């Protein structure tokens, strides 16, 4: 019977097939979001799910990069890219939500659900697990490719990633500075990127999920799975929990927001139309 060398044993122990890593990821996310759900029962602030979602998904990128069987250099790019994105966005959302009143979106859910709020909030939090697993395809597919993508594809991925991270960070910073000025209370932010898009932060968030597609060029039919994360993110932001709820609230409370909606692109930055 042939013996197994120490090096072969290490390889067997260190790397796992995609289904095994997916199961580990799924269980870990269930634990994380259940803990956050329990936390919100006491804090009455379900908005803290947002920073935890970003940070946990960044951790998923690292987990996949470490355990996957694919090309090492591609896994390093995926791990770093996902981790930096998750930490930056997570810290931004944490600073915005921690110690403040509950996000109006979640507060509205709590009011609508009444006595069933905690039970329904539990399943809402578990839905974040499903969404995170679907988005993590952006990490899984390139991390399991056997050979590295071409240098040009890696460069393209890096350019898209940098643009998305810097663009989203700039949009967040511009809005934060605008809100910090008491003179702007109750008014509509039309400065910087917000002059060209009502939600430039959402636009660059969608672009971020496009950044991993070049890393998967050459993996065969699995390349089509890479389209799901950016499409899913755009759909969630534009049709579900992002734009519809935020703009309904803003149109009620901020004079001039209706005009802002008529003249400014909802997502893709574009020169404003004349009223």
Automatic annotation (TrEMBL):
Establish whether keyword Transmembrane helix is in the entry.
yes
Q: Name one GO cellular component term.
A: membrane
Q: Which InterPro entries match?
A: UstE-like
Q: Which keywords annotate this record?
A: Membrane, Transmembrane, Transmembrane helix
- A Pfam family that the UniProt record links to this protein: DUF1295
Q: Does the keyword Iron-sulfur apply?
A: no
Q: What is this protein called?
A: Uncharacterized protein
The organism encoding this protein is Caballeronia sordidicola (Burkholderia sordidicola)
């Amino acid at each position: 019977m042939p013996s197994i060398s120490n090096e072969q044993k290490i390889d067997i122990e260190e790397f796992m097939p995609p289904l095994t890593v997916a199961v580990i990821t799924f269980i870990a996310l269930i634990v994380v979001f259940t803990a956050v759900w329990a936390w919100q029962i006491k804090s009455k602030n379900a908005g803290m799910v947002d920073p935890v979602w970003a940070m946990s998904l960044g951790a998923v990128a690292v987990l996949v990069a470490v355990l996957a069987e694919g090309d090492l250099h591609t896994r390093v790019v995926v791990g770093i890219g996902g981790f930096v994105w998750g930490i930056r966005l997570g810290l931004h959302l944490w600073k915005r939500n921690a110690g403040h009143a509950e996000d109006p979106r979640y507060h509205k859910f709590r009011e609508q659900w009444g006595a069933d709020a905690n039970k329904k909030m539990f399943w809402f939090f578990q839905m974040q697990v499903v969404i995170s697993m679907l988005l993590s395809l952006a990490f899984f597919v390139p991390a399991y490719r056997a050979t590295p993508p071409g240098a040009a594809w890696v460069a393209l991925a890096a350019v898209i990633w940098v643009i998305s991270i810097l663009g989203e960070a700039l949009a967040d910073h511009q809005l934060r500075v605008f809100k910090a000025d008491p003179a702007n209370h109750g008014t509509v932010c039309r400065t910087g990127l917000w002059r060209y898009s009502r939600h430039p932060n959402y636009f660059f968030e969608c672009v971020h999920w496009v950044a991993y597609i070049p890393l998967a060029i050459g993996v065969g039919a699995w390349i089509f799975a890479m389209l799901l994360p950016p499409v899913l993110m755009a759909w969630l932001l534009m049709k579900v929990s992002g734009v519809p709820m935020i703009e309904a609230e803003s149109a009620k409370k901020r004079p001039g927001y209706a005009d802002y909606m008529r003249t400014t692109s909802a997502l893709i930055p574009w020169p404003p139309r004349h009223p």
